[in-house]
Amino acid sequence: MKNAELKAGSPRPLPASSPIRILFILHSAFCILHCGCISHFGTGGTGEIVIADPRLHEVHTLDLQPATRPATAEPTSQPNTQAATRPTSLPATRPAAQVPISIEQCRQWALQNNLDLRVDLLNPTIARENLSEEEARFESLFTGGIDFSSINSPNVTQTVPGSGGGVFTVTGAKGTQSSADAGLVVPLQTGGSINLSLPFSKSNFGGPVYSLSPALSINQPLLRNGWFDANAHPIRIAFYEYQISQALTKLEVIRVLADMERAYWRLYAAREELAVRKKEYDLAAAQLDRARRQARIGTGSEPDVVRAESGVADTLDAIITAENAVRDTQRDLKRILNAPGLEMNSPTVLVPATKPDATLYQLDSDRLVRAATEQRMEMLETELRIAEEVSNVRLARNDMLPLVSLGYTYKVNGLGAVAEDAWSMVTRDDFKDHTLSLNVQVPLGNEAARSRLRRALASRIQQLATQQQRALQIQQEVLAAIDSLAANWQRILAARTRVIAAARVVDVETRQFNLGLRTSTDVLDAQNRLASAQSSEIAALTDYQIAQVDLAFATGTLLGASRVHWEPAPTPKP
Description:
Outer membrane efflux proteins (OEP), alpha+beta, 13 strands, 2 domains, 7-stranded antiparallel beta sheet, two-stranded antiparallel sheet, elongated, single chain, 12 helices
């Protein structure tokens, strides 16, 4: 090694080939490698499954094609949608504002105000921050510290050697020592790290001595925990969880909108049922008037009047029950919408403006099953879970490898009576150290790693079985929804025929009563059967609409003319 005197002097300029320059060039090169070796590291750059944004954020509509059939097979009339005038004998209710609402407006309100969605829309936001946290594992770290010490330690010296041990003198080493260190730690995507340190110290034991020793060290695992795939695992899992949270949130959006549409049609059915019961009340009241008129002129009997009065009372009870059903279904829809001014305790009356669609559709069960398998978010979630387990298996296989780490440290030493001398010595490259290290750890038996691998393989098999199970379940749900839609269409036709027949019976019984051939009981029974038939028609028509909603939900879509696009809740500002 070269000798160097510890004396003050002016520093020499930094040579172009100085190791310090080389050190910084190496550091810059590794930083470039760290930042640009793989694009989208852990989020598609190492083979991750990346789901397209429209598939996660857009809800498609169910495209049903009307069937071609003779016009006579379709319903020839719709249920009565106009409420009859309330007779003065009915219980009075407080007037309330009526708000006509379409199903499109309800869909918009539900997306904007539904509290269930407000909760679930935060899940992707939270998952995105978890992903950002994992991505930050490769951020560089600045290190630094300052120390100051006051030292007063004894030193023992032998001044007169002899057989008896000689004479020893105790002297004191008294002085001060201060140091400062600044460094930069750069984690690498390959699992290693680069450490750049610049320690500086000053010792004063009778005279100042300055020390400066910049160093660059590199450490890289070669087998276990090494290279890109193993180190991308935490980011990859967080990325999959982020996509899963978006898929589940889209599923929640579809569920809330489907629940809203079901509630909408139940409210429609309840209001139509109330209209039927009011019409039944009007018919019963008209029969009571006929019975009293015939009793007054002597062609009727008092028992017929009593029977007619009993029929009016029965229909009045049915109206009260129907009104309560309207209030219950209306509150259910208001809860889902949660729109300002439409609180559940508000007196505002919701009037469905969208009429049911009594159209026969031609359904291709195979096409709908295939579409459901592709569009249902449960299948996408399972696909991403399988991808997670595949990544876990690769990591478990990597954990079975020995831990082999290669390290290299380059250090330049400088020492001087003043700081400039220490820096000058460093720049002259008089004293430098090179350290190359290789560390090996081989588990004996390695049973823990084998257990982790077997567990990862079993979890992957479990997810594959879950995928098949869900596919069969979805197929069953789609086929059941198709059958329900067809059955409800047949119910509409049967109910329509029943309504026509019951209306004719009412006319016949009324004419027979006017001729004195029937009693009020016969007329009231015919009116009750007519009301029952009209209620069945309303129920069948409503169930047909709900069956369409169920079929859309089973295929992962919604009914409607336009697509629904949702976005996660915004990230709160700290």
